[in-house]
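Deliverable D5.2: sample structural annotation.
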Amino acid sequence: MDRCFAGAFLVAIMMVAFAIYIGWPCPSLSSNLLQWKNKDSSFFSIKKRKMFYKDVNGKGEVFSTATVLLLHGFPTTSYDWVKMWPILTQSFSRVIAVDFLGFGFSDKTIGANYTIMNQADHVSTLLKAIGVKNVHILSHDYGDSIAQELLARQNEGVSLFQIESACLLNGGMFKETNFPRPIQKLLGDSPAIGRLISKISNRYLFSFGLSQVFGAKTQPTEEDMYDFWCSYCIRQGYLNSADLLQYIKERSTYNLRWRYALAQSQVPVHVIYGPSDPVNPRPFIDFYREMVPNGSIDVLEESIGHYPQWEDSNTVSQLYIKFINSVLK
């Protein structure tokens, strides 16, 4: 009897521990994240869900009438742009950054239809609502696909606003040169199974996975990774991963549409690329030049990986300002 009791007690303890593990409350936001959330930010309602965005009237010291729209990647948020924020708000007259639905401070609904098409709709609706008619797009990763869809709509003459230029950082612009991480494919192949796997996500697994796409010499600090993790798990956002990762399949479905969005663009297209990127390795460079002959590209130092705006924000900022100068000259 004592052994049965001890065994049952051990099982109960393990079940409680597992329940705590998968339902661990969201960690407290750092002062940096709190400031990002609370300063110059708002929520925009879309079909009873709220999308977080920041909208700042910049100083416009370089581009007195230009607006820039920042589109973040997976699995992170608009906070990805925090290191570039000072120079962007100093240079542009208006700077807008969003957390797509399912990410960061925006609403998260398990099982929601988080398609690139829908996310592009949401961005378009937001810009129309806040009176933006002309915009320069700066995007990264997941945001690249949204930028490509917005360009495709402009090419078709159905855009709700005028894109004046598009600058894309590392991301899956082309199916042929994009290699999602094994965990991404595992989570995305079957949403039902992916949701189960997502439940055992924790800070350490998350940090290990994300660190793999940064350059070996440009790794996030422990504080940086804590902020990435906090943003990811707000409102148990990690449970959305499988639903969000359906974008990988969309990149196959819309491969030609989004390739031609860049190749046939009537506005300048530019890429700022970190070559130490296992998701989009070096063959991307030649493929991009072949597919988008009218586009331009800056290749960063060999040590820079998948998050150039974080790993080398000063250089990326300078190159982006140089690109916009060439557009507006």
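Annotation notes: The mean pLDDT is 90. The CA atoms of residues 58 and 267 lie 24 Å apart.
The annotation will be released with the project's public dataset once the embargo ends.
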